[in-house]
Design brief:
Layout (H helix, E strand, L loop, with lengths): L3 E6 L12 H8 L4 E6 L12 E2 L9 E2 L1 H12 L4 E11 L2 H8 L3 E6 L4 E2 L1 H7 L2 E4 L9 H12 L8 H5 L18 E2 L2 E2 L9 H19 L38
Parallel strand pairs: 1-2, 1-6, 4-7, 5-6, 5-8
Antiparallel strand pairs: 3-4, 9-10
Helix pairs in contact: 2-4, 3-5
Length: 255
Amino acid sequence: MTPRIDVLTLFPKMFESPFAESIVARARAAGQIQLAVHDIREWATDRHHVVDDTPYGGGAGMVLKPEPLTRAIRATKADRGHVVLMTAQGALFDQIAAHRLAQLPHLVIVCGHYEGVDERVIEGDVDEELSIGDFVLTGGELAAMVVIDAVTRLVPGVIEPASLTHESHTEGLLEGPHYTRPVEHEGRRVPTVLLSGDHAAIARRRRSARASGQRAFGSGLHAADSAVRRWPRCRRCAGPDSLFASSRATSACRM
């Protein structure tokens, strides 16, 4: 079955240019993924297609109304859709989450906007909340694009398996440095071992370089052993030891 990704957003045109090029565009053209972007306003029933309102209790900004968003999610996810809300309150999206989501047959990504989404929608129709980092974006659209790109390249057949084997965040390490022609550039030479033809020595050198890069730049990659690390959490599963564990986890998994 071809994996399907549906995106619910207030700004569907934002997705046209990024996915008209490169890996995602080729995967779509080859039939390796299905990607559809929907305007949440299509599910508003009033004449002006209003999808937001002021928050109860006061405060700045607007909140996405529950009725149109609930209808949009339920119409889009059908029977098998796994619904992900992109929000600053979500768990940190990382390579482990990308691999997990790439295994799903149907992914529905909801792009949060304004001050947020009515909590009742999250409680009733969202399976997982994700964030791409501890910073604030105008909306969830850019975050959704990051997730789609990371997930698409892991779908079988989209990229040569060998290209995925030793890239960054595989085996808990960052990828090592790369070199190509010429042998010397502005006084800096390609390491001799890479020119030697000794494949075993080259493999050892690359492994050592990956480990060195990990120590220098990737100390946070092993923070999974720490309680402060925010792993992606799925609301369909419970248990503090699960990668799918959620602060709002339900008592039974429906995945």
